[in-house]
Write a structure and sequence with these properties.
By secondary structure, this protein is mostly helical. The chain contains nine helices and two strands; from the N terminus they run E-H-H-H-H-H-H-H-H-E-H. The protein binds protoporphyrin IX containing FE (HEM).
Length: 232
């Protein structure tokens, strides 16, 4: 079995590989653009649709990257089991839990919730119909009642819950900065954390893994194009 390289104690450790960082900041930009284009409506909806397909491709990419990506980006390595979650909540994390390296257990749960809500938002958008000018490409495959429900979700609770989670997400990051004197943002930019005591495996982030990520993104985009054309 292949083991990722282990850094020396106190070393800088690659935690977020470039594809994960690119995913994060592209997703952040895309969501801001979606809120703006959705609010403007009218002609801006052409861009709302295009960026929505891009978010769809990003989500498919992240799903695949969660299986084959860098150590700390893999679902198997960041989704906490009940035991690790309880230890974390009781403040009794073990050194080998590495809760200070990738996502903390609560952070991991909020990441999963964001990804699920985003998927629901994309799914609802694909079948939505605002009964004015904008109709999702897969609308013809669902009943009028389902389309009405999806449209209400997409424009109501779906976006409200997503925004609430994003606010919580940014709030948690500010909390870590102010009350724990830890910047989580810098590692999401540079990829690295300096860890005391270490023993934590570094994420692979080589030319080969980045090429793999590009291929996965291209495959995700092709899948989205195919899904969108189904409704044509
Ligand atoms: C629309 C806005 C945003 C969304 C949807 C979002 C979503 C996410 C997601 C899905 C992850 C997990 C990354 C992964 O494992 O693939 C994440 C992590 C992270 N995000 Fe955001 N994010 C948003 C805005 C921001 C902003 C504005 C900041 C900076 C102020 C930020 C800082 C971070 C950091 C530091 C992490 C890593 C957290 C950790 O160390 O566990 N995010 N975000």
């Amino acid at each position: 079995m292949n083991h990722p390289p282990r850094p020396a104690d106190g070393a800088r450790v690659r935690v977020w590989d470039l594809p994960t960082r690119a995913f994060h900041w592209l997703l952040t930009g895309a969501l801001v653009a979606q809120v703006i284009t959705g609010k403007i409506g009218g002609g801006a909806m052409t861009w709302h649709f295009r960026i929505g397909y891009f978010v769809f491709a990003l989500l498919l990419f992240r799903l695949a990257w969660g299986l084959v990506g860098g150590h700390w980006s893999r679902f198997a390595h960041f989704v906490p089991g009940p035991g690790a979650l309880l230890r974390y909540l009781r403040g009794r994390s073990r050194r080998e839990d590495h809760h200070d390296v990738g996502h903390s257990p609560l952070g991991a749960l909020s990441v999963l919730a964001m990804l699920l809500l985003l998927a629901a938002q994309v799914g609802a958008g694909l079948v939505a119909d605002d009964e004015i000018a904008s109709v999702g490409p897969l609308n013809r495959f669902v009943s009028g009642a389902t389309a009405a429900w999806a449209t209400a979700w997409h424009t109501g609770p779906g976006i409200a819950l997503l925004m609430a989670l994003v606010l919580l997400h940014v709030g948690a990051i500010v909390y870590y900065r102010v009350f724990r004197q830890r910047s989580l943002v810098l590692p999401m930019i540079t990829g690295d954390k300096t860890l005391p005591g270490a023993g934590a495996p570094a994420a692979r982030d080589s030319g080969a893994t980045r090429l793999l990520a590009l291929l996965l993104l291209a495959a995700s985009a092709a899948l989205v194009a195919w899904v969108v054309r189904l409704g044509a």
